[in-house]
Design a protein that fits this description.
Layout lengths: L4 E5 L14 H16 L4 E7 L5 E7 L1 E5 L5 H4 L7 E7 L2 E3 L6 H14 L7 E5 L3 H8 L4 E2 L6 E5 H8 L3
Parallel strand pairs: 5-7
Antiparallel strand pairs: 1-2, 2-3, 3-6, 4-5, 7-9, 8-9
Helix pairs in contact: 3-5
Amino acid sequence: MSRRFAVEPLADGHDRCDFTCGNDRIDRHFGEIVTQDVARRYATCFVAKELATGRVAGFYTLPSSTVALTEVPPDLAKRLPRYPAVPAVLIGWLGRHRDFAGLGEALLFDALRTVATAPIGALAVFVDAIDERAAAFYRAFGFTPLTERPHRLYLPVKTALALLGPG
C-alpha cells in the first residue's frame, strides 16, 4: 500500500457513511452488515484509509473457509492429501470507493499478503466474484475459476507469495 493510504482493521472511528463503490450489494454490505460479521468473528475487515483526510477509500474482508476436495480442479487435487476439504481463506468482500481508481489492486495485494504471511494453514485464497467484471479482475492476477462455478476463483498461497515478491 502506498504512503497515501494506511490499511488497518475496521474500527468504530472509520466513517463508512459516504462509501460508494458503485455496486449496491457491496455498498450495502460495507455500510450495514460488515460490523455484524466482525462482531460475530465471522470475518475480519480491513480498511484502506487515506492518510491526508482519514477517508475510507476501500476495504476487504477475510473469513476462513474450506472448499470440498471434489470442487478443486483435478490438476490441483491430485497433489493434495485426500482430506474431504481443502483449508483456505476467502476474500469475502473487496471494494474501493469510486473516487480512488486503481486502489483495487493494492487492496487485493494487501489481502494476499495478509493471508500468505499469517501463521495459519491455508492452501489457497478463494474469491466469489460478484459479477463477470470482478471475475476478470481476479483472473488478471492469476486466479483460476473452479470448473463447476466460474465466479468462484482460487489462487494457491504459494502462487500468491511468488506474485508478492520478496519482502
